[in-house]
Each structure stands twice: as C-alpha cells, then as structure tokens.
Amino acid sequence: MNYRHAFHAGNHADVFKHLVLSQLFALLGRKDAPLAYLDSHAGVGLYDLSGDQASRTGEWQQGVGRIWGREDVPAALAPYLDVVRALNPDGQLRYYPGSPELARRLSRDQDRLQLNEKHPQDGRLLKDNMAGDRRVAVHLGEGWHVPRALMPTAEKRVVLLIDPPFEQADELSRCVEALKDALGRMRQTVGVIWYPIKDERQLRRFYQDLARSGAPKLLRAELHVHPTDDASRLNGSGLAIANPPWGLEEQLREVLPWLAAQLAQSEGGWRLDWLIEEGSK
C-alpha cells in the first residue's frame, strides 16, 4: 500500500471525477428520498495543496489551479467549485476536497455516508476529518469488500464510488466484479468506477467486461489531457457510471468540451457514450 492520494490531489483526474460526483448529488437531490453514499477507497477526505506531498508534484496546478478563479465556467461546475471556494474563503487556493468531503458537503440531512479506507494512517486522518458529523461512518478495511459488507443499505438509493489506487494489475477486473456485486444486492445502485487511461489494450478488455456486467444501463465518460497512445503516462481518466440519473449525459455533453480545452497538457479530448443502453440485453 504505497499509494497516497495527497501527491495527486486536485489534478485533472480529480477535477473530472469530482465534477461528475457533484452533478450526481445535484441531480439525485431533486427527490426528497434519502441517499446513501459509499466510498470504497476514500483517502483522507481533505488535502492541503501547500503540504509536502502535494507541493512535491504540483499536479494540482495543471488541474484545479487552471479553473480556480475563472469567471467563464459552465454552470454545471457550480456545485463543485462552490465546495472548493467554501474551503478557501480568503480566495487563496490551499485546501482541496477529496470525494468524502465533497460528498459530505453536497449531501443533505437525511443522507448517510459510509466511507472506507484501507491505509491505516489515511484511515485515521479520514476519521479526524469527518469527526462531528453523525451522518458519516468511517470503516478501516479492504475496499473490495464494501458492496458485500455494507449493502443493501436502509436507504433505497445508493451512490457507490469505486476508486482504487491501481497499484495491482488486476484492479480493472476487480472494479467490474465489485460493481456486479453491488448491482446484485441493489439493482438501481448508481455505481461509479474511476479508471486511469494508460494502456489501451487493457482498457479494451475492461470495456468488454463492463459491457457484460449486466448493469441496467452504463455510461462511459472520459477526459484526455494527452493522446491516448502512450502507456507510460496518465493520459487522462474515465468514469463508468451504472444507472446514471436522467440529465447527467446532457450536462456532460455541455461541460466536457470546455473542460478538455482548459485541462489539456499536450492534446485534450473527451468521449461520452453508452456501453450498455437502457433496455438492451
């Protein structure tokens, strides 16, 4: 367990992932029914961009740093950027929300958060950062066990984020298995898998596995900051979203071209399509 997300906090992949997560909360929040948010690999929840780890890489400068303070951002970014601004009320970008903090701030009184982190030190920091919010439970364990350990939930609606560190060669296939496990327990789970765009050969197999996952519907969204033909670097990232709420596809079609243009490092691009269309077999 060598991965520490603080080195990468606020980079282009975080901006994309957290933008989509914020849109999910906004769209699902239109109904009063309570929501459960489950995070399989939660990290520490809150990051100091001036800290040693984030400063060492400076990746945030090519991510959130490029859109911070902009006045011409699409409306769909508002919930996400509102959280970042709330953490930095003096207007100086220093603190960045991980997925748990973003979910905590965008969820409602009737919603509940179940956060899991395997790394012992990060798990303790996550507990400290979430302390005082009775809606939040922090678990210290193997993230792949989250669907079977925590589902079904008392809430009828669930957002599950599967976001492993991708240190092991089999993690793409394990993501699919975790999604299938979740859907087997709660069919209408909004399951979100984050994945890196590096090796196109591995991704082709991943896409095939997703298409055979049995999800009622599954949307693929990708953001590229480099051409996708170099397996030695992070060319971009993707999100496979099972059971996306109505309206998400339309919002992403509006915001992804803008985001790709702002975050491109050599050549930006994006993709949005259905790996499983609703009603297909």
TrEMBL record:
Q: Which reaction does it catalyse?
A: adenosine(2030) in 23S rRNA + S-adenosyl-L-methionine = N(6)-methyladenosine(2030) in 23S rRNA + S-adenosyl-L-homocysteine + H(+)
- Write down the EC number: 2.1.1.266
Entries under InterPro entries matching the protein = RlmJ, SAM-dependent_MTases_sf
Q: Which branch of life, at top level?
A: Bacteria
Residues engaged in binding S-adenosyl-L-methionine: H18, H41, S99, E117, E142, G143, D163
Q: Which PANTHER family match?
A: RIBOSOMAL RNA LARGE SUBUNIT METHYLTRANSFERASE J
The protein's name in its UniProt record: Ribosomal RNA large subunit methyltransferase J
* Native source species: Stutzerimonas azotifigens
